[in-house]
Amino acid sequence: MNEYGKVIIESDSVIQQLDGGSILYRFMVNNKFGLIDDEANIVIEPIFDDITNVGSFGPVIKVEKSGKQALIIYDLETDTLVPSSYYDYISTLSSHYPSNLQQLQARINVSDSTNSEPSTVSGSLIKENSFVPNNITNKYGYEYDANELFTFVKNDKQGLMTAHNNVLIPNNYDSITAYKRLLKVRLGSKYGLVTTVDETVLPIVYDDITEDSRIGRDSNLFMIKKEGRQGILDEFGQVVVPLRDMIIPNILNTSLEDILIFEKEGLYGLIEMKSGKQLLPAEFEHINVEHYTDYILAQKEGRYELYDRAGSLVYKGDDSVTDIEPLNTRIRLDSFSSQNVVLEIQPSEQYIKIADNYGLVSLVEAKEGKAILANKYQEIRYAGIANSLEGLRNKEITPIYAVQRNDKFGLVNATGEMLISEKYSLLAPLHYPPFFMAANIVAIEDEEENERLRQKLKDQGVNSGAYLEENSRFNTFKFGVIDKNDTELLPLEYSSIFSNFNGNAVYIYAIKDEMVYQYDANMTLINTIPEAELEFW
């Protein structure tokens, strides 16, 4: 109605504004839909069974009548909105504009004589022309991208058209699916790839073409399958791995992004994704690349073997070896005030930690395979130290290892010499200064503290066990600082010890009895403050 209360137009349903900011409204008369403008002028007569918005780049209007669908286009000659050609069904082809072979940027032209179906896209580098959308505007505020793509169905076959009813691909295919910069098309049970103007990229001879980012970190890859063989293409339809008699199990390679596991007759091997070069033959029961950056753990005939990225054998275990993994040697210095990593160092030395069937671990130097520590430890951790910040930045690091035996930690150097026997419950390097935080478990003797902890457990619903016995004692850690010769720099009597690195200096903080003691890199006391005033703690 108007401002005077006069009814201008009546609708059998809610008068609903269409998406996209136009002045068009859907209304209904006798169960048929039409369009009016914001002054209730009829723009399209109510003759349609439905009117909806479709499209990815803008609100294109789709109408349905007698089981057929059409897009509403703006007729420049008559200055009116009219339905385009009618089809059995119309659907948006998301994120695609018209393109041809000359607009596809070829990545790497992989020449391989074993490739029987190469891509027809030129292997030379072709500059990709950016497509400029043609936006239609009119007096109704109905703005749509004339070049947005839609699939249409007619006589049970699919074709491709633009939003302005420009047919790019006749209805020749059983299905059309958007695949990266290309279109996956199907005829019967076979698939191929075409451009949006129906130029052939891959002939329709494949059993399947599967888009799956789990192939690797490069999500612009997809897999082709034909007669039991598989291969990999990039987003431009270029061959990355030629068709081969193998199975690619779509295993996500989180670290070795350019290396791919393949399967053949129930066994696994490795190929280099870009060149298709075989790094390891399919003769392993298991291959693990998910947690490593430079190594590949494989199992053959029940034995574990470690390989580098080139497929060269680094270490071969015997029957007693149950696991092989690289030792983590990364050094990180954090700023506790911002909780950000300020300095991160990866020493050049590389080590392999080997576990046997008794749960004991040994250590081997990776490059030459030299044994450093025998298999007699529960755990081995890298505990490298540096004599200065400059030395740390330059990777001038003394390799030392924290080893655990009988649930206690000690220190061993790179020659296997025991520096500190296993005597500490915890032992962690400060890296710089070249000291170690040590800790032992001690019983809490304070009766009030023990009673407080017993009551806390009761409040948490713990109703049985020795913890709640009246004479029970609770344990806690007491921390201190030592050097590699076990010289005590701070006694093991602190409730917490941590370092703070600001990029230019390192400070050591030790907390005891709600007081914080700040030390410099020479372990000289420089400040004492109440724990409550420690802003970043």
Written account of the structure:
- By secondary structure, this protein is mostly beta strands.
- Helices cover 3% and strands 49% of the residues.
- The protein is built from two helices and 47 strands.
- The strands form 13 sheets. It has a four-stranded antiparallel β-sheet with strand order 1-2-3-4, with no helix packed on it. It has a four-stranded antiparallel β-sheet with strand order 5-6-7-8, with no helix packed on it. It has a four-stranded antiparallel β-sheet with strand order 9-12-13-14, with no helix packed on it.
Write the layout of secondary structure elements.
Elements: E1 16-17, E2 25-29, E3 32-36, E4 42-48, E5 50-54, E6 60-65, E7 68-75, E8 80-83, E9 89-92, E10 135-136, E11 144-145, E12 149-154, E13 157-162, E14 167-173, E15 175-179, E16 182-187, E17 190-194, E18 200-206, E19 208-211, E20 221-226, E21 229-234, E22 239-244, E23 259-264, E24 267-272, E25 278-284, E26 286-288, E27 295-300, E28 303-308, E29 313-316, E30 321-326, E31 331-335, E32 340-345, E33 351-356, E34 361-365, E35 371-377, E36 379-382, H1 389-393, E37 400-405, E38 408-413, E39 418-424, E40 426-429, E41 436-443, H2 447-459, E42 475-482, E43 488-494, E44 496-501, E45 506-512, E46 515-519, E47 525-530
Antiparallel strand pairs: 1-2, 2-3, 3-4, 5-6, 6-7, 7-8, 9-12, 10-11, 12-13, 13-14, 15-16, 16-17, 17-18, 19-20, 20-21, 21-22, 23-24, 24-25, 26-27, 27-28, 28-29, 30-33, 31-32, 33-34, 34-35, 36-37, 37-38, 38-39, 40-41, 41-42, 42-43, 44-45, 45-46, 46-47
